[in-house]
């Protein structure tokens, strides 16, 4: 099976921060892949914008190197790369001053889609929006793409929303969370709402609990300055994991349309109960395996910023009342993996007695790596000798079930950028959704700051602090093993 390529309309895409890591590591190589697959029209153009003085050819040389670094040699097409590079130009722009703005405005074509990607630090979002407005680059058909972090707390998120709203309407603002562009995340909605098999069971009456895990093997070395001001709660839980929780817990929208989907996600966030201190664990990784500790990586021996968070959340509505949602994320853990595991309840009565092989049904949605969906069911063990039960997986790995073409499915950034050009906001966060997430997160952070407690140390290569295991053990449950 080969993914279907649907061309987009002609566009001018400006990437602010075009020489930065996100642009060269993800955005520009992703746009090359879309071009190589035939999705970009002939009239599409991409403009790099940054502070560094640079000519068009110098920028193309930089992008060529970025493509070579991001894409394996066997998947590169020399002719396609050269064609893509002809689409590129560069303007040196001062985000907080006036240099370069008239030149940038002169490049924009009024008869095509105009999109502006803010691949810069959040402190420049307001300044960029203001100057785009001042130089007439905020027409009704223009769009801006805003990277996370979108605010540091509720107050800063509200202030940023207000600043952007002075210069652009809400329908022009695309707050990007790349997790929503992942193929398996979108398949979660398809599994729920396109299959009668699951939706009637997707409620507290039948679901025992849900686990969401986002584990990483890397530490924070190299980005300690940013991370130590953020921590796992702000960096992962408030945005990525909140979005996953919303997609699991939301009611069926009336249609797969931007505001219909986002309205239902907002209801989930507003239905979240406050998290009790006893239901939250924070941790920091120790030194080990020839690598430094968290304190070493951030060069702050007294830091109390967490590199690990585990918590139990409850959604107080009719569908989920009483069903716990367990979330955990951390650095320097055993394996790099992201998954959602839905554990269903046991049958009310077992006609087979208490057999060891009988376990609760489990639906696992694996986001990375090896994207796929697995349903674990109980069957009879083959052979004579009575009714012996065993657990077996019904496994749909995308790479195996969908064939070689599944390997060519666009990554999250590619898909989301194409949605920006199409004007489709379904997989982007709305302003009130961001503020609601911060309204739930802020009291959690304020509570532990008021207590002054330190994150618990944990060994690298493990599953996090011991208290995170107890979070489930005291409920008679266990975390799923973190494995590649």
TrEMBL record:
Chain sites annotated for binding substrate: 178, 182, 216, 235, 331
Keywords linked to the UniProt accession: Carbohydrate metabolism, Glucose metabolism, NADP, Oxidoreductase
Originating species: Rhodovulum sulfidophilum
SUPFAM superfamilies named in the record: Glyceraldehyde-3-phosphate dehydrogenase-like, C-terminal domain, NAD(P)-binding Rossmann-fold domains
Domain Glucose-6-phosphate dehydrogenase C-terminal: 189-480
One GO cellular component term: cytosol
Binding site residues for NADP(+): 51, 148
Pathway: Carbohydrate degradation; pentose phosphate pathway; D-ribulose 5-phosphate from D-glucose 6-phosphate (oxidative stage): step 1/3
Protein name: Glucose-6-phosphate 1-dehydrogenase
Keyword check for Hydrolase: no
Molecular-function GO term, any one: glucose-6-phosphate dehydrogenase activity
Function noted in UniProt: Catalyzes the oxidation of glucose 6-phosphate to 6-phosphogluconolactone.
Superkingdom of origin organism: Bacteria
Family: Belongs to the glucose-6-phosphate dehydrogenase family.
Keyword Oxidoreductase part of the UniProt annotation: yes
């Amino acid at each position: 099976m080969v993914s279907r390529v649907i061309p987009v309309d002609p566009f001018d895409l400006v990437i602010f921060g075009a020489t930065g890591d996100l642009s060269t590591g993800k955005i520009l190589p992703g746009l090359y892949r879309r071009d190589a697959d035939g999705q970009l029209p002939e009239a599409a153009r991409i403009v790099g914008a940054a502070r560094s003085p640079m000519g068009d050819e110098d920028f193309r040389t930089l992008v060529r190197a970025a493509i070579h670094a991001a894409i394996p040699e066997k998947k590169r097409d020399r002719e396609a790369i050269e064609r893509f590079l002809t689409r590129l130009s560069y303007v040196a722009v001062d985000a907080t001053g006036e240099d370069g703005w008239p030149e940038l405005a002169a490049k924009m074509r009024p008869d095509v889609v105009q999109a502006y990607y803010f691949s810069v630090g959040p402190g420049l979002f307001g300044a960029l929006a203001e100057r785009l407005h001042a130089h007439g680059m905020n027409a009704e058909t223009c769009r801006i793409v805003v990277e996370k972090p979108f605010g540091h707390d509720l107050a800063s998120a509200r202030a940023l929303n207000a600043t952007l709203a002075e210069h652009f309407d809400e329908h022009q603002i695309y707050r990007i969370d790349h997790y929503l562009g992942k193929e398996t995340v979108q398949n979660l909605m398809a599994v729920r709402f396109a299959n009668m098999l699951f939706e009637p069971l997707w409620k507290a009456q039948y679901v025992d609990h849900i686990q969401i895990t986002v584990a990483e093997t890397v530490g924070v070395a190299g980005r300690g300055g940013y991370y130590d001001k953020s921590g796992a709660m702000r960096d992962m839980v408030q945005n990525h994991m909140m979005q996953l929780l919303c997609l699991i817990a939301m009611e069926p929208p009336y249609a797969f349309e931007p505001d219909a989907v986002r309205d239902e996600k907002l209801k989930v966030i507003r239905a979240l109960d406050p998290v009790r201190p006893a239901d939250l664990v924070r941790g920091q990784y120790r030194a080990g395996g020839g690598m430094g500790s968290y304190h070493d990586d951030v060069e702050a021996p007294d830091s109390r910023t967490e590199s690990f968070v585990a918590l139990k959340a409850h959604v107080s509505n009719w569908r989920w009342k009483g069903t716990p949602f367990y979330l955990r994320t951390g650095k320097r853990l055993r394996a790099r993996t992201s998954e959602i595991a839905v554990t269903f309840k046991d049958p009310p009565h077992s006609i087979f007695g208490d057999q060891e092989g009988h376990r609760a049904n489990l639906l696992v949605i694996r986001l990375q790596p090896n994207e796929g969906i697995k349903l674990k069911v109980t069957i009879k063990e083959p052979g004579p000798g009575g009714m012996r039960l065993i657990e077996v997986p019904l496994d749909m790995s995308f790479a195996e079930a969908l064939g070689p073409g599944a390997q060519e499915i666009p990554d999250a950034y590619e898909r989301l950028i194409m949605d920006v050009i199409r004007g489709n906001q379904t997989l982007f966060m709305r302003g009130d959704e961001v503020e609601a997430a911060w309204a739930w997160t802020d009291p959690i952070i304020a509570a532990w700051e008021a207590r002054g407690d330190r994150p618990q140390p944990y060994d690298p290569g493990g599953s996090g602090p011991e208290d995170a295991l107890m979070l489930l053990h005291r409920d008679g449950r266990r975390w799923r093993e973190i494995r590649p």
